[in-house]
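Issue 218. Parser rejects a valid record. Input:
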Amino acid sequence: MRSYLTATVSLLLLCTVSSGAEPPVDSTTADALVTRTVLRQPGEDGVHTSRIPGLATTPAGTVVAVFDLRHQSAADLPQDIDVGMMRSTDDGETWSSVKPILDFDKNEPGSLGNGVGDPAILVDAQTNTLFVAAIWSKGDRGWKGSGPGVTPDETGQVVLTTSSDDGRTWSAPINTTPHIRGREPQWRLFFCGPGNGIQLKDGTLVFAAQFREPAGPPHSCLLYSTDHGDTWTVSPPAIPDEPPTSEAQVAELDDGALLLTMRDESHSGERVWARWTWNVRPDAETKGTQPAGRWSQPWRTVADPTCMASLIRHPSGALLFSNPNHPSERVALTVRTSSDEGRTWSAGQLLDPRDAMYSSMTVLRDGRIAILYETAGTLTFARFPLEWIEQRGR
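Output the parser choked on:
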């Protein structure tokens, strides 16, 4: 096991938040309720940059972190990128060494590094199976280079790897693109997350996802499975017209509906939200006679600099949300709670005032919240109890 010093880090919080951002309630990252560990640093293990965190807790209490291993530079696909994994069996006190769990041959001619990245992790607690979904770019088949079609030479591929032994070992890549994209081959790209997926109370597995229509604009949607990952179904887009939306996260609400929070590609300076309500049970045999669900009208709330964010539900029932608290700059990572099923959010607690980008949260076995987030070139892991947010978060 690789040990890391887990310490409470005192940081200067005199950061200036420009007008337009909702200022969080004053707090200090030296708060005794918060501990922080640098999990990945630039250049570590010969990897230029580690980015795009996903975080989950298994039924056994193991914390599993996944992320991009960007070997040559900090750039997105296409390049030499693998999906790395680390696991902790003691609530984040110590961690395993990093292990690539999705890795395609970078030396394949014409593959431009044959990268795979932007992972999203999901736990099926009923079968004790972990899923990690990512996008594979054989050649220039990332965000910009993907076109219509379903083959690796035409478009980015949705690949999965699974683990049935609590994250110790992982399957070979499973290419689900022909199955998922079979009905929509005209899309230019489809992929999940990044971040984490969820399992609903009835056992349904759900990833937040996105696709690019033939003309290019992206749309957030859902990808769900009622048979423990054997087959998958794509929902209609949450917002079929404007604004364009991309990276999203999902949580289940008290009544079984789903809350989707979306990155707004129109650069409005706010998050976009929508609610999915099931028309029928997801596994009902409707034979196409009615859609599985419907989307509400979208709404905007919470400052956001067009960035990925994290959304989870705590066992207490509280909804938790983390993102950079600024309309245009990726700074001031803030964690909020909602008491009205995501319609409005607290001012929140400032977790880190520095540059802050992607984040992913999970709930530890003792009820504390853990978050893996990008700051100052690192992937940093922090833990805190729910009371830390709620004591000054309203």
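Fixed in the parser; the record now loads. Residues 197-266+270-303 form one domain.
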